[in-house]
Design brief:
Elements (H helix, E strand, L loop, with lengths): L2 E4 L4 H12 L8 E4 L15 E2 L3 H7 L2 E4 L6 H4 L7 E4 L6 H4 L5 E5 L10 E7 L5 H12 L2 E5 L3 H9 L6 H16 L4 H14 L11 H11 L2 H11 L2 H24 L1
Parallel strand pairs: 1-2, 1-4, 2-3, 4-5, 5-6, 7-8
Antiparallel strand pairs: 6-7
Bound molecules: 1,4-dihydronicotinamide adenine dinucleotide and (2S)-3,4-dihydro-2H-pyrrole-2-carboxylic acid.
Subcellular location: Cytoplasm
InterPro entries: 6-PGluconate_DH-like_C_sf (IPR008927), NAD(P)-bd_dom_sf (IPR036291), P5C_Rdtase_cat_N (IPR028939), P5CR_dimer (IPR029036), Pyrroline-COOH_reductase (IPR000304)
Catalytic activity: L-proline + NADP(+) = (S)-1-pyrroline-5-carboxylate + NADPH + 2 H(+); L-proline + NAD(+) = (S)-1-pyrroline-5-carboxylate + NADH + 2 H(+)
Amino acid sequence: MRLGIIGATGWLGSALGRAVLERGLVAGPELVLLNRSGVRLDYHGRTDVAWASDVSDLVARVEVVVVAVRPEDYGDLALHAPGRLVLSFMAGIPMAALSGAGGRIVRAMPNAAAGHGQSYTPWLAAADVTQADRVVVRAVLATIGTQDEIGTEAQIDSLTALSGSGAAYPALMAAGMLAHARASGLPEPVARRAVEAVVCQAAELLRGRIETAADLVETYRAYRGTTAAGLEVAEANGFSGSIAQALDAATRKAAHMGRDKDA
Ligand SMILES: NC(=O)C1=CN([C@@H]2O[C@H](COP(=O)(O)OP(=O)(O)OC[C@H]3O[C@@H](n4cnc5c(N)ncnc54)[C@H](O)[C@@H]3O)[C@@H](O)[C@H]2O)C=CC1
Ligand SMILES: O=C(O)[C@@H]1CCC=N1
């Protein structure tokens, strides 16, 4: 398969480029890259990849075009890719706008865990996407983690806010905990290890059974100890409500950013 990545040295484009090479999905010369800063002599330790001179050169050389530029840069690409499978990673650029590119369009929403092969990537296919295309999409996305085909653009918007945000909310919680630990006078190495133990290690309890999260919270509450005292104040200050409002706001932004520009 010949695969092109527009935005090949960005956060996600670079993660995908590395993953398809490392997993052997694409041979070096079959990977055609484009970025704004020009050819890199070393791309993830490889010198055998191909570089396109511009968007139309890339499209001419591949069957699958991955669009990994920021949404605000999409218009300037003037992408014209008839007959190609076009895999967009962009938040907020709807199918209706992407269809102007002329290819068979798939919208996929990875997250930053793509960089270590742990993205969860839901995707949505336009009506003319074939079963053979679906096999290709699954194979490409499997290189960066797990994937699910979903049914509607509204679900892509919700998932842009949820899984698309990757580690943002855990990071927000970790930063808050770390600031508190420091303010409490804990030695820095201890503070760091303690917060990591909560956000990265203790959360492992939920792996494979995330649906039991509310039960775990209830178990802590029923214990009526120190954690219950903390949870009560967190909820009284709107912890769960804040999360819901944050996800609503991000979903609204995903739903409107591309459509407003179109209107
Ligand atoms: N970073 C993330 O966690 C996620 C990002 N996305 C989406 O993925 C897309 C890429 O995001 P990031 O990788 O974070 O952005 P980024 O800013 O790290 O990378 C974008 C790359 O595109 C390049 N670029 C821009 N215009 C170009 C052009 N005309 N020709 C060639 N290259 C061009 C930029 O130079 C940059 O290297 C965005 O649309 C974003 O909405 C989706 C889910 C998660
Ligand atoms: O924050 C963003 O806009 C990117 C796209 C989806 C998730 N992260």
